[in-house]
């Protein structure tokens, strides 16, 4: 299986298709996105509970955060693979329901390879992050420790006047880190799709992700620019809508205002999950789908006989 280069405007097509995702089976797609969203909150809730009970120092808090991230990868990777397969089923008019996101956990569901890819990508994130901090982040860890100490002392609030001056290399670190993050996001989207939908072993899927992203840097970059620019007006509109709803509800009772905003916020998050995974799916499909899929036939189904992580 080879990767393909797409046109410079392909990213806009992925976004458009992601926004339109669910038109074939809205109940399955949005229901599965809601399940995925709820599962995604569990590690964060557990992290908050541990922090509130143990009240660790900054180093302990970072260890708890690392443990929560590891749990998130192990827990979410199979759900994400199940969601991508559900999307593929709806796009090919195959029967699908929201409960299909649990399928990777069943016997022969390939959860091990999905988790393996997530863990391998996380290892690369850590290696690249350590390398960047080593080169550009002199004094960054000490600065973060001081900021976290101030945050704990202020019960989550920080007086801006007390925040120490940021290290000199922070700007270079953020700039280069953003570029690498964008590249790794493409690698993850393509590679994870190859594991979940293309039936590729983890190491080959990783290679496909790197090569496929390198071939499609321009459309991925354009997509990122469009998303950043679009987030400004969309964010302002949403802020106004939430503000009006909260104000109207608050006139009756402050609790009512919060009660009205919460379902709107949850609905927005579900929509964002659908669009995000829709973009991920269409990116993978355009870059990696085999030649026979160009004729409208489905790509090869992922293997179902792997019980261990295949590297």
Structure explained in plain terms:
The chain is an all-alpha fold and 311 residues long. It has one domain (10-295). Helix content is 73%, strand content 0%. The chain is built from nine helices and no strands. Helix 2 (26-54) crosses helix 9, helix 4 runs antiparallel to helix 6 and helix 8 (217-252) packs antiparallel against helix 9. The protein is globular, with a radius of gyration of 21 Å. The two termini are 17 Å apart. Residues 291-311 have low confidence and may be disordered.
Helix-strand layout with pairing:
Blueprint: H1 10-20, H2 26-54, H3 58-91, H4 111-136, H5 140-153, H6 170-196, H7 202-215, H8 217-252, H9 254-288
Helix pairs in contact: 1-8, 1-9, 2-3, 2-9, 3-4, 3-6, 4-6, 4-7, 6-7, 6-9, 8-9
Number of helices: 9
**Quick one: how many beta strands?**
0
- Uncertain parts: 291-311
> What is the CA–CA distance across the termini?
17 Å
The string of secondary-structure elements, in order, is HHHHHHHHH
Domain count: the total is: 1
Report the C-alpha radius of gyration, rounded.
Answer: 21 Å
Helix content: over 70%
Largest pleated sheet: none
Strand content: under 5%
Estimate the global geometry from the Cα principal axes. Answer: globular
Structural class: mainly alpha
Mean pLDDT: 87
Protein name: YihY/virulence factor BrkB family protein
Keywords: Membrane, Transmembrane, Transmembrane helix
Transmembrane segments: 29-54, 60-84, 114-136, 173-197, 217-248, 260-284
């Amino acid at each position: 299986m080879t990767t393909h280069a797409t046109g410079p405007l392909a990213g806009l097509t992925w976004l458009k298709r992601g926004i339109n995702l669910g038109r074939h089976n809205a109940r399955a797609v949005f229901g599965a996105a809601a399940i995925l969203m709820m599962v995604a909150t569990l590690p964060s809730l557990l992290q908050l509970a541990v922090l509130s009970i143990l009240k660790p120092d900054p180093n302990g808090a970072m260890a708890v955060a690392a443990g929560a991230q590891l749990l998130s990868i192990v827990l979410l990777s199979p759900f994400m693979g199940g969601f991508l397969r559900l999307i593929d089923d709806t796009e090919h008019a195959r029967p699908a329901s929201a409960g299909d996101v649990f399928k990777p956990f069943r016997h022969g569901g390939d959860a091990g390879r999905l988790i393996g890819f997530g863990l391998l990508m996380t290892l690369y994130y850590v290696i690249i992050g350590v390398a960047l901090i080593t080169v550009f982040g002199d004094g960054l860890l000490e600065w973060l420790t001081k900021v976290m100490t101030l945050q704990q002392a202020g019960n989550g609030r920080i007086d801006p006047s007390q925040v120490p001056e940021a290290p000199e290399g922070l700007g270079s670190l953020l700039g280069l880190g953003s570029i690498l993050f964008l590249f790794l996001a493409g690698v993850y989207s393509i590679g994870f799709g190859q594991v979940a939908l293309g039936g590729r072993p983890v190491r080959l899927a990783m290679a496909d992700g790197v090569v496929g992203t390198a071939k499609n840097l321009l459309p991925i970059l354009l997509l990122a620019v469009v998303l950043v620019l679009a987030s400004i007006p969309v964010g302002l509109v949403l802020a106004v809508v939430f503000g009006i709803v909260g104000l109207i509800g608050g006139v009756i009772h402050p609790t009512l205002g919060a009660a009205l905003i919460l379902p709107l916020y949850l609905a927005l998050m579900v929509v964002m999950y659908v669009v995000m995974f829709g973009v991920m799916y269409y990116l993978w499909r355009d870059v990696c789908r085999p030649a026979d899929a160009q004729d409208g036939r489905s790509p090869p189904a992922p293997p179902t006989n792997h019980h261990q992580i295949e590297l």
